[in-house]
Amino acid sequence: MASEQAPVEMPATFSKYTKRVMLKTILGRTDGGVGLVGQRVVIGGWVKSSREIRKQPVTPPPAAPAPPVVSPKDVTCSEVFQSRIPLFRSIMKVFGAGEYRIREKLDVVVQKAPQPSVSILQVSDGSCVASLQVLVDSALANPCQVMPTGTCVLIEGVLQQPSVQGKHYVELQAEKILHLGLVDESKYPLSKKRLPLESLRDCSHFRPRTTTVASVMRIHNSLTWATHAFFQDQGFLHVQVPIITSTDSEGFSEKFLVTTLLSKGIKDDQISPTEHAGVSVEAIRASMKEKTKKVEELSRTNSNKEALVAAQQDLKKTNELVSQLEARQKAKSGVTIETRKFDFSKDFFTRQTYLTVSGRLHLESQACALGNVYSFGPRFKAEKLESKKSLAETWMIDVEMAFSELEDAMDCANDFLKFVCKRILEGCMEDLQFVLKRIDKSVMERLQFTISSSFVRISYAEAIEILRQVAGKKFQSKIELGVSLTEEHESYLVDEIYKKTVIVYNHPKELKPFYVRLNDDGKTVATFDVILPKVGALIRGSQSEERFNVLSSRMKELGLQKQQYEWYLDLRRHGSAKTSGFSLMLEPLVLYATGLNDVKDVVPFARSFGRANN
Q1: Is position 78 within any domain?
Q2: What is the residue range of 525's domain?
Q3: How far is CA 52 from the centre of its chain?
Q4: What pLDDT sits at residue 266?
Q5: Half-sphere exposure of 585 (CA within 13 A, CB side)
Q6: Secondary structure in 3-state letters for 479-504
Q7: What letter does residue 555 receive in the DSSP assignment?
Q8: Residue 263: in which H helix or E strand, if any?
Q9: Average pLDDT of span 85-114
Q10: Are 561 and 444 in the same domain?
Q11: Do both 421 and 391 map to the same domain?
Q12: pLDDT over 50 at 267, yes or no
């Protein structure tokens, strides 16, 4: 029987475009990099932590033996002369003057040479959880320059076995510093250790340098590629849908208006310079009261008509200035359509346009020509609420399939979730081990259970009835038909009752968008929500209404402007087909895979109500 061969380890190789070795090619090996000892490499990254070790001073050689005593008869003339030097100096001190006078002491300050040391750096380049230990001699670089957290280094050196036994299998002995990006420790936000995630949101441009956020970003990346891999393997086409649209995709969502008309309002040169000098509207209003009193007094006495006219003109100018400042403040804070009327025929697109809320409607037009399609891109909602599970700007996966019904979409959503969970378990083990240790000890078990378990499917009416029968539990929101299930209701279904993923389908038509298919009962629609433990409703899907008359009636019932949706109705007029699909926000999926609790911690730059820092 042939013995099983060990996997062949590849040597550390330069990244093609950066001429350096990625640390994961060293530290990600099964031997931890031991097989690369002796190789010369160039690595680049940022210092995570550091310490300094002083070198032991070199012991001076033993003193030479004392010279033999010289007899008087062997004393030379030079030796006699040197023995008389102190006498000569005393004589010269008495008779010397000016620049020739000899100083008693030399005013020379001799600086003590610093003790040699070695800086031991833990360097990370973001390619893996582990960091590489790098030894930099003080003769190569000043410790105060290379040791601060956040310092950027590009170093050439030789890999060697660790000088001190510990958690490292290999270390780098630096021989050349090719680049050094210094840090101002007093201002660098990551100089402090163990910063909470909440405080890192204010410095989102630096937080990927932390181990936690870096791991989350790599898992985020794996989920993105797993998404593309699943749909590409299933024969779907990836298509782009517009970010700017004239269509309200859901019919009732809060949207961001896109317009250039605000820039055509009050101009900077129409505002008094006093505004830029820091004069507030309140201060000017206070002065208006004084000026009004002055006008009233002059009017009563009627003694000085010229002063009255001047006071009236001054009051008029002050009123105009207040109006201008108030208008400027409104423009800065964001003017709504209700507070200011616009002629959108003069706008950039000659009509009202918005940032898209969902890509399902546009994607349906592609499905009715290309078959099964999906889109992956940013979506926007202007909801003024603070939530740990939603953002103003989110990345959404929209899916649409031609010639399919509700059951088909639920099956696709089921398979997709199992696929991406399996993919990150296979490809992100190091990062998941870190998450398991630092964030959520149940993350592995949760992902494995998602893969192996079957999803429960219940109707909305069944879910309401099951929750009503719960004894000894008082929910904050009332449970009744026709009302949306809250996060509390959904959490109780998946965490307490079924203890697994649940799909709730056939919701009341009042709770869902206008375009979903009306069921035969005339009260519910063909929709479904996939509810997961920890994150709640992750996927929302539906079968689209393919019947022209039913769709038109539904739009009329909701009071939607038919003109805005004529292009969508055309799909029913010309070659209509049954389609179904779903939408999934990526950020809650990352929460599910990492155990974090707030979506603002799993995106590079979070956009939420009241927050857009950079």
Answers
A1: no
A2: 211-260+342-601
A3: 33
A4: 43
A5: 24
A6: CCCCCCCCHHHHHHHHHHHCCCCEEE
A7: H
A8: none
A9: 54
A10: yes
A11: yes
A12: no
CA 466 to chain centre: 39
530 closest CA partner among 493, 482, 572: 493
Which residues make Cβ contacts (< 8 Å) with residue 405, sequence separation at least 6? 526, 543, 578, 580
| 126: its two tokens | 């973001």
Give the tens place of pLDDT for each residue, 174-212: 999 999 999 999 999 998 888 889 888 889 999 999 999
In a domain, 88, yes or no: no
Clarify whether residues 285 and 219 are in a common domain.
no
The span from the CA of 602 to the CA of 181, in Å, is 27
Instruction: Summarize the chain as % helix, strand, coil (round to 5).
Output: 40, 20, 40
Tell me: do 481 and 530 sit in the same domain. yes
**534 and 594 share a domain?**
yes
As a whole number, mean pLDDT of residues 529-545 equals 96
Angle at 451 between CA 449 and CA 457, to 5 degrees: 85
Task: Give, as one character, the DSSP assignment of residue 372.
Answer: S
* Distance in angstroms (rounded) separating the CA atoms of residues 12 and 15: 9
Round to whole Å and give the CA distance between 33 and 397. Answer: 39
**pLDDT class of 104 with cuts at 50, 70, 90:** very low
In a domain, 419, yes or no: yes
Query: Do 134 and 26 touch, CB atoms closer than 8 A?
Result: no
Under DSSP, is residue 451 helix (H, G, I), strand (E, B) or coil?
helix
How many other β-carbons are positioned within 10 Å of the β-carbon of residue 71?
7
Q: Where a domain ends, among 331, 364, 389? A: 331
Residues 468 and 350 in one domain: yes
* 353 and 499 assigned to the same domain: yes
pLDDT at residue 339, as a whole number: 36
pLDDT in tens, 316-330: 777 777 776 666 665
Rounded Cα distance between 594 and 220, Å, is 9
Total number of domains in the chain:
3
Strands (E), 405-556: 456-459, 502-508, 524-532, 536-543
Render pLDDT for 410-434 as a digit per residue (tens, 0 to 9). 999 999 999 999 999 999 999 999 9
| Both tokens assigned to 467 | 């929750």
Give 437-475 pLDDT, tens digit per residue.
Answer: 999 999 999 999 999 999 999 999 999 999 999 988 888
Tokens 């002369």 belong to 81
Query: How many residues does this entry show for the chain?
Result: 614
Return the CA Rg of the chain. 38
Domain of 133, CATH number, reads 2.40.50.140
Q: What is the DSSP letter of 27?
A: H
Q: Quick check: helix, strand or coil at residue 129?
A: coil
Does residue 5 lie in a domain region?
no
How far from chain centre, in Å, is Cα 603? 3
Tell me whether strands 171-181 and 132-137 are parallel, antiparallel or unpaired: parallel
Q: Is 310 found in the same domain as 360?
A: no
CA angle centred on 274, ends 270 and 280, rounded to 5°:
105
Question: Residue 90 carries which side chain, given as an amino acid letter?
Answer: S
Residues 6+ apart with CB under 8 A from 551: 514, 515, 545, 569, 572
Residues with Cβ < 8 Å from 44, sequence gap 6 or more? 18, 20, 125, 152, 153, 154, 155, 179
Strand order in the sheet with 579-585: 237-238, 373-380, 393-402, 579-585, 536-543, 524-532, 502-508, 456-459
